[in-house]
Fold this sequence. Notes:
The strands form 4 sheets. The protein has a 5-stranded parallel beta sheet with strand order 3-2-1-4-5. The chain has a two-stranded antiparallel ribbon with strand order 6-7. By secondary structure, it is α/β, with parallel strands linked by helices. The chain is globular. The chain folds into 3 domains: 2-133, no CATH class; 138-237, Rossmann fold (3-Layer(aba) Sandwich), CATH 3.40.50; 266-327 and 362-464, no CATH class. The chain has helices at 5-36, 45-62, 72-96, 105-133, 147-158, 192-199, 213-223, 266-301, 332-342, 344-353, 364-372, 379-384, 408-413, 432-444, 448-464; strands spanning 138-143, 164-170, 185-187, 203-206, 229-232, 245-249, 254-258, 307-313, 319-325, 389-391, 417-419.
Amino acid sequence: MKRYYGAVLMLLFVLMDYAALIMAEQGAFILRNIITHSQNLHISWLNFWIVFPSLFLLFIHLGQLYSRRMPFYKEVEKLFHACCYGTLAVIFVLYVARIAATTSRMFVGLFGILAFVFLTLLRYGAKRLLLHWDLLQAPTIIIGAGKTAELLAKSITQDAGMGYKIVGLLEDNKVQPGVLQKYPVLGKFADAEKVIKETGVKRVFIAAPGLEERKLGMLIYRIQPLVKNIGVIPNLVGVPLGAVEAESIFNEKLLILRLKNNLARPLNRWLKTIFDYTLTIVGTILISPVLLFIAAWIYKDSPGPVIFKHTRVGKNGKPFPCYKFRSMCVDAKEKLAELLANDPAARAEWEKDFKLKNDPRITKSGAFLRKTSLDELPQIFNVLRGEMSLVGPRPIIKEELARYGEYVGDYLMVKPGITGMWQVSGRSDTTYEERVQLDSWYVRNWSVWLDVMLLWRTFAAVLGRRGAY
């Protein structure tokens, strides 16, 4: 039965995507009629049930969404592209068939938008259920049991899009403490062929970046005839590979990785600015009642200024007043100085992270605002002033610049963000060194789509309140 997992999974998602597209058409039809107060739209049976959904399914297939397993954020990106191309294809068909004049453009636009929404939601829900029930997950073996293998295992077990089931490890040395210890060690590197034949797995990941080039080559050469796919994690952890292009020179048997610096392109910087202003203007209008309510609550809880301004370092090292809802008492500066002078443990914690987990200066309203990250909402005005971005490195104070070391140039290259890699990766549960590396990774791998995904993941991080204090 396991040999048919791929075919069953593909059929399942084709049927599910078709259902999502029919739902999107029906939703677009109803919404268009409600908005226009008109019931005269007619779509032929052939177009509604066959032609329009087939065009979208074609582009989903061309995006390899039925043949490849990939992280879910990448899957969402490919779904977005497929829906854009599918919408354009529908428009093209309408003009070729000379029925564009009788088919609502609003219907087509709403269909494209709802198609993306329904396809994403249904796929995510189905993949989470399959992962939870351990159904149709492709068996795989990880060769290696160090830090890189642990990161890979975490991604496989937490990301709904990956769709792999780890059946065991191969390792010559000790297993990395943590996630990997729950998987059985099936043998050493030399046992790879025997273990693959015994388990029948058709997918293998080699996560041993310290392996010598000659040994790695021989390992791949030995197991490649036995499996369908081999994933090799090279010794490039932390290298900016967000926009990498791979190219092979087959005569010399070389692999070239072309690394792009997206932020070096003026067009991309303009796209980021337009993205920031558009979402911020719309968002500010929508949340204005919430802002007023929070302001009134803060003043009632602790009379004094509602907005707290703190100088932070911006792009090119330019200081700016970073706005937050006040979450501390009005004499917080004096209380901090007194606390650090009299409490060695608090002083050590402050010097380590510039934060205190049990900060006595925080007010009742401030504790809730910090837990939910609502205290950072006024930073939308920093975005409108051009001092911050919606997504970017964590805004820091001048004294923290020295902690960035060789990565300081990455930080100063862009505007700091309201949210970013740090906020969706555990926030205050991460070490300072990890925060610095996260900021650097973001800058070097930036894309508009990365911003979209980080904003989306911010909601989950805020709702989970992980690492917030």
